[in-house]
UniProtKB/TrEMBL annotation:
<dbReference type="InterPro" id="IPR016024">
    <property type="entry name" value="ARM-type_fold"/>
</dbReference>
<keyword id="KW-0732">Signal</keyword>
<protein>
    <recommendedName>
        <fullName>HEAT repeat domain-containing protein</fullName>
    </recommendedName>
</protein>
<feature type="signal peptide">
    <location>
        <begin position="1"/>
        <end position="20"/>
    </location>
</feature>
<dbReference type="InterPro" id="IPR011989">
    <property type="entry name" value="ARM-like"/>
</dbReference>
Length: 199
């Protein structure tokens, strides 16, 4: 409890200090009179506060919470999301939060990570619904091979569930194909359930 109060106090102080930061200032410049060391130290404290927000146990922080901490929240979220050495829980939460910035750069990074053979299968279960939730019908193409061709039945089920969240005729067609070719009866039932949500 004491650690929680200290963390809450730190977040409050950082959020107060961060709100004084000019929103229009580019992230790669330093305010006049502020040394690079001071900026790096400030960034380290802000990144630590972002990690603390990502550590909430019940859900990822909201966009409002992140931007309330710093207008440069995306910079810190993206840094953690791209850090393969980061604590897996923090990285997963950062990836989910990165979905708040659903632009081309985020899409390219997430689909690249999805298709990277080095990506741990446990992370695929985060990426599949994240792409569907953040990018809608644009995610159908990248999700398709995971429901139709992936060797892991759990990944196929996750991909089907992600496609089942989309209000898309194309997603329904892909799920229909998946139902026909799925050899596992339990997975086939799950894919049918996902397709039924689109009918």
């Amino acid at each position: 409890m004491k650690l929680f109060l200290i963390a809450l106090t730190l977040l409050s102080l950082l959020a107060t200090g961060a709100s004084a930061e000019p929103a229009a200032q580019p992230s790669n410049t330093t305010a006049p009179g502020v040394s690079d060391d001071a900026k790096a130290d400030s960034d380290a404290h802000i990144e630590e506060a972002v990690v603390m927000l990502l550590s909430q146990h019940h859900r990822a922080p909201t966009l409002k919470q992140l931007l309330g901490l710093t207008p440069r929240a995306r910079v810190f979220v993206e840094r953690i999301a791209r850090d393969e050495s980061a604590f897996a829980f923090h990285r997963e939460r950062a990836l989910i939060a990165l979905g708040y910035w659903a632009d081309d750069a985020t899409f390219e990074y997430l689909t690249g990570l999805l298709n990277d053979p080095q990506t741990d299968e446990s992370l695929l279960h985060t990426l599949l619904p994240l792409l569907a939730n953040s990018f809608g019908e644009r995610a159908v193409g990248p999700l398709t091979p995971f429901v139709l061709e992936h060797e892991n039945v759990q990944v196929r089920i996750s991909a089907a569930a992600a496609l089942g969240r989309l209000n898309s005729d194309e997603a329904f067609k892909i799920l229909d194909i998946a139902i026909e070719q799925e050899p596992n009866p339990i997975a086939r039932q799950r894919i049918e359930d996902a397709a039924a949500r689109l009918r």
